[in-house]
Amino acid sequence: MEDPDADTEWNDILRERGILPKKNGPTEEEIFEALDEAIAARNAKRLEEKSLEELDELEDEEDDRVLLEYRIPECKLMNALLSSLAMKYKSTKFLKIIGDDCIPGYPDKNLPTLLIYGEGDLQQQIVGIQRFGGMGTTINVLEDFLESVGAIEIFKQKGSKDDYEENASSTRKSIYSKKPATAALSDDDDDSD
């Protein structure tokens, strides 16, 4: 009989029928090792083909990436906090953009920068997160600040959920006027007591 571990069509058919035991394939660890080796070989080959100028440019790019990783944590923190607030305050629009895409040449030292608009005008500009406590900034501190400048409205829940929702809907503003959306009710309704 032939070698049962040989890769032949006949042995594959016998394995499918259960006559031969299934062939042991590579383990997950072996697959990852082979993948790592292939990536390392590819990168080494790619680097060998580069000129000194190209290698110098790659080194500069790597330096820039390392520097950015030390600057980005503040932006990552602010982005995470604002993303959480955006889910909570759906009536407020939260936007984000890369500094250089917004203002060409905008210095990285000023990131993150918050631009808070209201009624079509810039209401507040905050550069950096030191004002909120640096890397220790919490969502509550940021939420309180955004409420203080009028970017969001926090409704303090005093009663039931229905009271909270009623309070929230009564203070929503119409997009066409500065009056509350429920102001259409006349004051004559109070006389019916």
Give a verbal description of the structure:
- Helix content is 47%, strand content 7%.
- By secondary structure, it is mainly α.
- It has a domain at 53-171: Glutaredoxin, CATH 3.40.30.
- Strands 1-2 form a two-stranded antiparallel ribbon.
- Strand 1 (113-118) and strand 2 (121-127) form a beta hairpin.
- The protein is elongated.
- Residues 157-193 have low confidence and may be disordered.
List the helices and strands and how they pair.
Layout: H1 9-16, H2 28-48, H3 52-88, H4 99-102, E1 113-118, E2 121-127, H5 139-148, H6 161-171
Antiparallel strand pairs: 1-2
Protein name: 13441_t:CDS:1
InterPro entries: Phosducin-like_chap/apop_reg, Thioredoxin-like_sf
GO cellular component, one term: cytoplasm
Task: State the shape.
Answer: elongated
Largest sheet composition: 2 strands, antiparallel
Counted beta strands: 2
> So what's the CATH class of the domain at 53-171?
Alpha Beta
| Residue windows where pLDDT falls under 50 for at least 5 positions | 157-193
CATH architecture name of the domain at 53-171: 3-Layer(aba) Sandwich
Structural class: mainly alpha
Order of helices and strands: HHHHEEHH
What percentage of amino acids are in beta strands?
5-15%
Largest sheet, order of strands side by side?
1-2
Distinct helical segment count: 6
Radius of gyration: 31 Å
Assigned CATH superfamily of the domain at 53-171: Glutaredoxin
Helix content: 40-55%
Family: Belongs to the phosducin family.
GO biological process, one term: protein folding
InterPro entries: Phosducin-like_chap/apop_reg, Thioredoxin-like_sf
Protein name: 13441_t:CDS:1
